[in-house]
Amino acid sequence: MAHLKTKATRHVPEERLRWKLWLIRRLYEKGWPRQRILDLFWFVDWVMRLPEDLDRRFKDEIDRIEEETKHALRHEC
Question: The whole model's pTM is what?
Fold first, then answer.
């Protein structure tokens, strides 16, 4: 799937960023453990390279998603 999305977004880095963020959000929503998500994204990042500025935005957004997830989990308990 990552390979197909890489081909489909070859000339559209903003779309590639959106797809990567969509995927990581879904994994957190499904309750995947953080380490498992990071392991998967090692591969996805290798396949779906982003320009430096978008890669920074991606990492910032991951931090925000992780904070939201931690916050939601605290309120469920």
Answer: 0.80
pLDDT of residue 63: 92
User: Rounded to an integer, what distance in angstroms lies between the CA atom of residue 51 and that of residue 3?
Assistant: 17
Give the residue extent of every domain in the chain: 16-76
What is the C-alpha separation between 53 and 70, in angstroms, rounded? 26
Please name the amino acid found at residue 61: E
Q: What's the rounded Cα separation, in Å, for the pair 69 and 34?
A: 10
pLDDT of residue 3: 85
Mean pLDDT of the chain: 89
User: How big is the chain, counted in residues?
Assistant: 77
Give the CA distances from residue 29 to residues 47, 68, 76, in Å, rounded to whole numbers and listed in that order. 23, 11, 14
Identify how many contiguous H helices and E strands the chain contains and give both numbers.
Answer: 4, 0
